[in-house]
Amino acid sequence: MIELKNVSKVYPNGTIALDKVNLKFNKGDFVILMGESGAGKTTLLKIIRGDEEPTEGTVLFEGVDIQRYNRTSLRRKIGFAFQDLTLIDDRTVFDNVSLPMQFRGASFREIHNKVEAVLSEVRLREKMYKLVKELSYGEKQRVSIARALIYEPIVLLLDEPTGNLDVDTARAVLNFVEVLNERGTTVIMSTHHLIEFGNKPKGIIKIRKGRIVGKEYV
Ligand SMILES: Nc1ncnc2c1ncn2[C@@H]1O[C@H](COP(=O)(O)OP(=O)(O)O)[C@@H](O)[C@H]1O
Ligand SMILES: [Mg+2]
């Protein structure tokens, strides 16, 4: 469903973030993108979502060049939980999760029902009206994932979702993501350290200095 053909990304300052990357992701995959800080993981995820344009090469989503794909439907089909969370600390969990829908001008009832449903999924229903700053980091991580789920994306991109979590919380977040994957969501997740979780075999793509240096299953 997603294919990268010969994708390179050179930032304006000359940094080569990705160097001739060829990858294919299929529906239902659970792929872990592994590499050290600076390897190009975030850039790769942004390119998969069309947030960054490759300097060279093409990205196909459902067979269509992503740069020509309708932006709005792309954003709905590909959910993204950013590494830096990008949550608004002084607002409630409800506000943060519903922001994408508020922008779209959905009705309050529609928004409320949807937010309640996704928060139940990430087991944060009871924190709906808490301010984000009152939550633990693990809870914030789940709020960020909940926001990415608001449009029931068919692909979920997670950028180092366990980066700042202790092992137990990380495993809980990942087990939850695995459930989503088992229900059919394609998951592409970056990490710089591997945490074992779940039972399903996952694809591991190793990236170093912008190049794919290994693919395996664990
Ligand atoms: N907006 C940017 N402008 C210039 N260089 C960037 C930018 N974003 C990332 N880089 C550089 O590109 C390389 C890959 O970065 P990134 O994709 O963020 O790696 P990772 O997520 O694996 O840590 C790094 O050398 C980083 O410094
Ligand atoms: Mg990164």
UniProtKB/TrEMBL annotation:
<feature type="domain" description="ABC transporter">
    <location>
        <begin position="2"/>
        <end position="218"/>
    </location>
</feature>
<dbReference type="InterPro" id="IPR003439">
    <property type="entry name" value="ABC_transporter-like_ATP-bd"/>
</dbReference>
<dbReference type="GO" id="GO:0005886">
    <property type="term" value="C:plasma membrane"/>
</dbReference>
<dbReference type="InterPro" id="IPR027417">
    <property type="entry name" value="P-loop_NTPase"/>
</dbReference>
<dbReference type="GO" id="GO:0016887">
    <property type="term" value="F:ATP hydrolysis activity"/>
</dbReference>
<keyword id="KW-0132">Cell division</keyword>
<dbReference type="InterPro" id="IPR025662">
    <property type="entry name" value="Sigma_54_int_dom_ATP-bd_1"/>
</dbReference>
<comment type="similarity">
    <text>Belongs to the ABC transporter superfamily.</text>
</comment>
<dbReference type="InterPro" id="IPR015854">
    <property type="entry name" value="ABC_transpr_LolD-like"/>
</dbReference>
<dbReference type="GO" id="GO:0051301">
    <property type="term" value="P:cell division"/>
</dbReference>
<keyword id="KW-0547">Nucleotide-binding</keyword>
<keyword id="KW-0813">Transport</keyword>
<dbReference type="InterPro" id="IPR003593">
    <property type="entry name" value="AAA+_ATPase"/>
</dbReference>
<dbReference type="Pfam" id="PF00005">
    <property type="entry name" value="ABC_tran"/>
</dbReference>
<dbReference type="InterPro" id="IPR017871">
    <property type="entry name" value="ABC_transporter-like_CS"/>
</dbReference>
<dbReference type="InterPro" id="IPR017911">
    <property type="entry name" value="MacB-like_ATP-bd"/>
</dbReference>
<dbReference type="GO" id="GO:0022857">
    <property type="term" value="F:transmembrane transporter activity"/>
</dbReference>
<protein>
    <recommendedName>
        <fullName>Cell division ATP-binding protein FtsE</fullName>
    </recommendedName>
</protein>
<keyword id="KW-0131">Cell cycle</keyword>
<keyword id="KW-0067">ATP-binding</keyword>
<comment type="function">
    <text>Part of the ABC transporter FtsEX involved in cellular division. Important for assembly or stability of the septal ring.</text>
</comment>
<dbReference type="GO" id="GO:0005524">
    <property type="term" value="F:ATP binding"/>
</dbReference>
